[in-house]
Amino acid sequence: MSSPAAAQPGLRERRRRETYLEFSNAAMDLFEQHGVHGTTVDDIARRAGASPRTFFRYFATKEEAIFASADESEEFVRVAIAAIHGGEDTFRAIEAQWMLMLDDFDDRRDEHTRFLRIRRLIIGEPTLLAVALRREAEQIDQLTEAAAQATDADPLTLRAGIATLALAIRLTFDEWSRCAELGLNTPARTIYDEVRAGIADLTRRLGADR
To answer: With b meaning 16 or more CB within 10 Å and e meaning fewer, what string describes 17-33?
Structure first.
């Protein structure tokens, strides 16, 4: 049996996550009602029942607040980097983590409505779109740097491949969202397989024309 001291880190993490989501939900509600420019950090903190000072312990800007699941995708990136440094093939290591992420997303149906709300905000708010694209670019940079350190492959080739995988994931979630808005229950993993097949076909076509 775990001692209270041993269990405490889990309790702290759970509370951290709850606070994280409280701020995120407050930001999402206010952004939907008043837009990003019409919402302040004070507004978000007040809605969440906390102080602005506490808000800034979790987020650097108000725009960051709706990306509450970002730490999960960052964990997938950390695991992929560890696998790359451990000697696994770069692209297989990254795709393996993306597959786990997609399977997790498909399993967590209770999160789908929230995902769609956030996506609508990102599409409609340029500042939020900029944050999303910056996060994606940072992950590509981190993965490319790790792969360049672990292999002797050409850095540009590595970046091109990693960016293509990232694009495939973005296209997958774009298509999943389009289907969901139409009331279609299409698994993200199924969509990714179709996107991946399309990329592979394009690669073959381009190779045949060289």
So the answer is: eebbebbbbbbbebbee
Domain range for residue 24?
A: 4-65
How many distinct structural domains can be found in the chain?
2
**What is the per-residue pLDDT across 29-45, written as a single tens digit (0 to 9) for each?**
999 999 999 999 999 99
Which CATH number is 53's domain given?
1.10.10.60
Q: What confidence tens digit (pLDDT) does each residue in 94-135 have?
A: 999 999 999 999 999 999 999 999 999 999 999 999 999 999
Kindly report the pTM of this predicted structure.
0.85
Mean pLDDT of the chain: 91
Of 38, 65, 92, which closes a domain? 65
Among candidates 107, 191, 174, 82, which has minimal Cα distance to 136?
A: 174
Residues 28 and 73 in one domain: no
Give yes or no for residue 87 having a pLDDT over 80.
Answer: yes
